[in-house]
Design goal:
Two copies of one chain form a homodimer. The first copy, chain A, is mainly α. Helix content of chain A is 67%, strand content 7%. The first copy, chain A, has one domain. Chain A is built from 16 helices and seven strands. In chain A, the strands form three sheets. Chain A has a two-stranded antiparallel ribbon with strand order 1-2. A two-stranded antiparallel sheet of chain A has the order 3-4. In chain A, strands 5-6 form a two-stranded antiparallel sheet. In chain A, 35% of the residues are buried. Strand 7 of chain A pairs antiparallel with strand 7 of chain B, so a sheet runs across the interface. Chain A: It is a multi-pass membrane protein. Chain A: One of its GO terms (cellular component) is endoplasmic reticulum membrane. Chain A: GO terms for molecular function: phosphatidate cytidylyltransferase activity. Chain A: Pathway: Phospholipid metabolism; CDP-diacylglycerol biosynthesis; CDP-diacylglycerol from sn-glycerol 3-phosphate: step 3/3; Lipid metabolism.
Chain lengths: 403, 411
């Protein structure tokens, strides 16, 4: 069994007491329905039912539109933050530290204010220009955010208590690393979303598909262990998951590229005060004819093939999600072994906490954002210019011409 | 009895009881105790004055060094900032190693330095692409690096992340995660803020010199005021700091900053943004000084008019800004120092390192500077400069594959 015999048994790195994540948290209705089954099958059924429930929930919130998605992303972020901070409290037995819970949540609010304020100022520019107080907040946004953060920093310094210095510094660092991971990446997810819902749906679906496919391939064909950190993962699952995810991503990209609802950047109509998703689809969502290389021409006897360019991009996204994305999962596994916890929390029966489901998503979200910014979209750069226009007191105007 | 310091020094390492038996025959314990106390006082006072001298000499040496590197120009300054950053990073990481006894962790030193290089590559690459745009456009490989800069930086960071995951060793998981977090928090503090210092520098050397001088002056003035007038302790974290030092340091720093701003605003060398001349391949610091460095006439409020019998006063607007910078540096800046004091108490270390005799490590000198550098950057970006926004636009022009052109018109 992994995880025992950690060499560092010092007073300042205490063991985490057995968490309540190990206790059964399944709802009564499921329990009754599965009474007759042996325990292992019961576990599989619970996991399966919850998986389907989560996927259904995913479709539902996509249907309900951008505002719901933003709210869901924000709730996930807050829940993940709370889960990780709670683990920190248990590790350091620091519930009784003065001020610390307040400060952690205060820093969360500050960083969120900074990021969402930048987003609101960028995307809801017209709305901001109308309202006087919003204009002030937008123009001096960075200064206000910095002042808020500084207030928290000074409160932390003033709250240092003689016997608890080290604990307090540990919790300070723990909070900041958690903010760095959780909040910045949820912000990147929102920015991807504004590019077009397809940039939100496809990466998340890729990670979900890879999880499920790697699990199934590993279940049926798995023999060679992949990495010591996660003994249940196998090379067969890894490679099978990779190929099936690439195919899945390819097909999903084809299906979604046809609808404006997914493909168009999310815009805000200031007259009707609502989100509009209508546009002339960008070039990568317009079907194009590609000439196949000679080798494939002879095999398939097709000369050309009609593809959306986005499908080519989806191959790169799927490859990343299957090959590098799992490292996020291994990182989380190592973290759980390091602190001797089975799951981050027991929010979802059979699956653990929210963080357990989202550990691979974070790398994917960051990669997608960097991918868009580097290879695809100019929109993000336009936003930088809009930033200039709204923040400078001189009201510069900028015109773009294509050379 | 007459003792000379040479004698005291040579016996300083002996037990005082031994000294007593050397100097007197200890027949009378009263005489021995008295001589013991006397010797103890001489030794400790000698060492105290020696310590003050060392601190004083090193302080002057550092200030002189500061003037020297300012004289030598922007490239030297950038190199010095980079070296300070690397030394601070090394000091904090070494403390982490000692706290966690983790010298023997596989790969970890390599990974820490690798992450430092990655983050520096990201930040300095952005700066180089922004400020040396013409140079970048000329060279083909640089163009490629500049256009896909973020992707390349992210890929480099990811490689380090994957290496970390692969290096996790069964019995050392928790240690390795601690060191990973330690490294990242250190990078967050040290590297991002050294990058902000460099960006301030490019705004104009005055934005580099004045904040640093403000912090140095506040340190020295608060120390002197505390030394001569200090009675009320300020905060339990740093028992040597006093309210008298704090308030005295505040007022003297504001005055100092005001005067320094006046002195420096007159020279183009300090006031102009640092530019790069691609023909001559050198830095040029020439420009039409911005409005805040042009003397203006301010009408004094009525109250001061009656007191001083001046109607107007000629000031550089930058001097008004310097009052705000000085206030921050004296009132909020010390919190950076308290944070570092708390950190040292938490991990039971006296100084970050022993690099500077009498002063400790580089980090000990720079702990207050970091908050100041960040504040200066935010201050410039919010209230003063449009240059940073122009840079964002230049970023667009150079990174997009469509070669958009942007023209600015003032409405």
């Amino acid at each position: 069994m992994e995880g025992e015999g950690d060499g560092d048994s010092k007073a300042d790195t205490p063991d985490v007491p057995l968490s309540s994540a190990d206790t059964d948290n399944t709802p009564q209705c499921l329990n009754k329905a599965l009474e007759g089954l042996p325990p292992r099958w019961k576990n599989y059924w619970i996991r399966g039912v919850l998986s389907l429930a989560m996927i259904f929930g995913f479709f539902l919130i996509i249907y309900m539109g951008p505002i719901t998605l933003i709210l869901v992303v924000m709730s996930v972020q807050i829940k993940c933050f709370q889960e990780i901070i709670t683990i920190g409290y248990r590790v350091y037995h620091s519930y009784e530290l003065p001020w610390f819970r307040t400060l952690s949540w205060y820093f969360l609010i500050c960083v969120n204010y900074f990021f969402y304020g930048e987003t609101v100022a960028d995307y809801f520019g017209a709305l901001v220009q109308r309202e006087e107080p919003l204009q002030f907040l937008a123009r001096y946004h960075r200064f206000i955010s910095f002042a808020l953060y500084l207030a928290g920093f000074c409160m932390f310094v003033l709250s240092l208590v003689k016997k608890h210095y080290r604990l307090q510094f540990y919790m300070f660092a723990w909070t900041h690393v958690t903010l760095l991971i959780v909040v910045t990446q949820s912000h990147l997810v929102i920015q991807n979303l504004f590019e077009g819902m397809i940039w939100f749906i496809v990466p998340i679906s890729i990670v979900i598909c890879n999880d499920i496919m790697a699990y199934l391939f590993g279940f049926f064909f798995g023999r060679t262990p992949l990495i010591k950190l996660s003994p249940k993962k196998t090379w067969e699952g890894f490679i099978g998951g990779f190929f099936s995810t690439v195919v899945f991503g390819f097909i999903l990209a084809y299906l979604l590229s046809q609808f404006q609802y997914f493909v168009c950047p999310v815009g805000y109509n200031s007259e009707t005060n609502s989100f509009t998703i209508e546009c002339e689809p960008s070039d990568i969502f317009v079907m194009q004819e590609y000439t196949l290389p000679a080798a494939i021409q002879n095999t398939l006897r097709w000369k050309t093939v009609n593809l959306y360019p986005f499908q080519i991009h989806s191959i790169f996204l799927s490859s990343f999600g299957s090959l590098i994305g799992p490292f996020g999962g291994f990182f989380a596994s190592g973290f759980k072994r390091a602190f001797k916890i089975k799951d981050f929390a027991n929010t979802i029966p059979g699956h653990g906490g929210i963080m357990d489901r989202f550990d691979c998503q974070y790398l994917m979200a960051t990669f997608t954002h960097v991918y868009i910014a580097s290879f695809i979209s100019l929109y993000l750069y336009y936003i930088a210019v809009v930033n200039i226009m709204m923040s400078t007191p001189l009201h510069l105007s900028v015109s773009f011409q294509r050379i």
